[in-house]
Design brief:
The protein is an alpha+beta fold and about 120 residues long. It has 3 helices and 5 strands, in the order ββαββαβα. The chain is elongated, with a radius of gyration of 20 Å. The termini are far apart. This is Membrane-anchored ubiquitin-fold protein.
Length: about 120
């Protein structure tokens, strides 16, 4: 594998910080990129993904599927030769289980304010 064939990618997180840039083989899948993001996720962030399914990667306005490779997801019109590709990282918020949903709904109902004008 020649060094010229590698694609340089950085990941922009929701708060504007970056992971990378790092060089990847064009045959690298989006799923393995997501695993890299999980491994290199900065400590101390309030929102952190737990699995690769909690992460969405966006490149040139398109959400990338896990089975795609970097080569398949590239848009040559938007990229400069030898430039760094910036992929945006979106983290899915944690899902509430049924008990939490019921407690949240009950709390919203009991915390209502009622005003009466006489």
């Amino acid at each position: 594998m020649a060094g010229e064939d590698l694609i340089e990618v950085k990941f922009r997180l929701f708060d504007g910080t970056d992971i990378g840039p790092s060089k990847y083989d064009p045959t690298t899948t989006v799923a393995s990129l997501k695993e890299t993001i999980l491994a290199r996720w900065p400590q101390g962030k309030e929102i952190a993904p737990r699995t690769i399914n909690d992460v969405k990667l966006i490149n040139a306005g398109k959400i990338l599927e896990n089975n795609q490779t970097i080569a398949e997801s590239r848009t040559p019109v938007c990229e400069l030769p030898g430039g760094v590709i910036t992929m945006h990282v979106v983290v899915r918020p944690p899902m509430l289980d049924k008990n939490n949903e019921k407690q949240l709904a009950k709390a919203q109902k009991t915390n209502r304010c009622a005003c009466t004008i006489l």
